[in-house]
Design brief:
single chain, alpha/beta, 8-stranded mixed beta sheet, 10 helices, 18 strands, 26% strand
């Protein structure tokens, strides 16, 4: 290490808590640790110049699951588990709003819509048939019906004549949200080192030895909040899942407002700054999208553009402005992994594409693993 005395003393000596990942989970974990241990020296290590997984790359959906997603979850989870999942997502969103305030996040509650393509007759009929049952299931959380029927007010094409509408869902400005969280963390005296990848760690009983691509140091405790990159640190129950996104240039008189889901949530779009942001399509090639490599594929990008032309903006001319991708963490269960790996190492990962919704709570619960 070619550090000066001052650099080592200020950043890398006597570190109480080190957090890997400066996304929603990592930042909330740091804030909770600071609340519990005000005098602690806390360091966050981030592999990217900006949070490099999904926290600054997601679509900004303040959502907790479309009706088809919840029905799909009921195939692999008990009713009680699904209620717990939705409750955690909804309360996580409220916690994020309380922490930052709606204005700093640019939170807007335009509602959420699920659309069904004309080929989705079976799924469409199942969702209509089971809508009342799902509303009843979720009544203890929301105290009123969640899912309602609406006509095709936005004039989308090649879809079923009705949407399933949810007034509880909203949207955020992802960049503003993370900026506000970072400001809160930094102003509390927590330090962040960017462009610093953790390569390995060793719990040496009295402390954790942490090796990065730039230096090696010790910390009393280590908290892993890398979600989609968790398998690189030995958490094999997490599978990376790349999500590809595109956004149009501004469109005059854009009348579409809200968050929208298609095909069990594998496609999603919204309005932002008079643009349409559209993402998804990993169901076209699950294996290729199980990667931590940021990038796009022709297969998925062509499908997204086709969806814009044929369904979302069939009568409107538009130009694609940007394309990007983010890395989520998924697995065979939707429930996040929150556990102590060793006496001094803890992890909060596998957010299943619901990081905006549950990231705040997972971060808090990750910190609370330390009694």
């Amino acid at each position: 290490m070619n550090f000066s005395y001052w650099e080592y003393k200020t950043w890398l000596s006597n570190v109480d808590f080190t957090i890997v990942g400066s996304g929603i989970v990592g930042l909330n974990c740091a804030l909770q640790l600071k609340n519990k241990f005000p005098q602690a020296k806390i360091l966050i290590l981030e592999r990217g110049i900006l949070p490099n997984g999904a926290s600054t790359k997601n679509a900004g959906f303040a959502c907790f699951g479309s009706i088809s997603e919840i029905l799909d979850d009921l195939n692999t989870h008990s009713e009680e588990e699904v209620i717990q999942l939705v409750d955690k997502r909804y309360n996580g969103l409220q916690l994020l709003r309380q922490h930052l305030g709606d204005q700093s996040m640019k939170y807007l509650q335009h509602g959420g819509y699920e659309l069904f393509t004309t080929n989705d007759n079976i799924l469409y009929e199942e969702c209509l048939l089971k809508r009342k049952n799902i509303n009843k299931l979720l009544l203890p959380i929301f105290k009123e019906d969640v899912y309602h029927i609406k006509e095709n007010i936005f004039n989308f094409k090649n879809i079923q004549p009705q949407y399933i509408y949810n007034s509880f869902e909203g949207q955020i400005d992802t960049g503003k949200t993370i900026e506000a969280l970072l400001d809160k963390v930094l102003s509390s005296g927590i330090k962040i080192l960017n462009n610093c990848t953790v390569k390995s760690f060793c719990d040496c009983t009295s402390s954790v030895k942490i090796e990065t691509d730039h230096f090696t140091f010790s910390s009393n405790k280590l908290f892993i909040a890398t979600n989609g990159f968790a398998s690189q640190l030995g958490i094999q129950q997490v599978t990376p899942a790349r999500a590809q996104v595109l956004i149009t240039k501004p469109i005059d008189n854009l009348h579409i407002k809200g968050t929208f889901h298609l095909e069990k949530g594998y496609y999603y779009f919204r309005n932002i700054d008079n643009r349409i942001l559209l993402g998804g399509g990993r169901n076209l090639d699950f294996k290729t999208e199980e990667t931590t490599v940021l990038g796009q594929t022709q297969l998925i990008q062509q499908k997204l553009e086709e969806m814009l032309h044929k369904t979302i903006l069939p009568s409107t001319s538009f130009t694609i402005d940007q394309r990007w991708s983010g890395i989520m963490g998924t697995g065979n269960q939707k429930k996040p992994i929150l556990k102590a790996k060793t006496n001094n190492v803890f992890c909060g990962v596998r957010l299943g594409g619901m990081g905006v919704a549950i990231g705040s709570i997972v971060g808090k619960e990750l910190a609370d693993l330390l009694n």
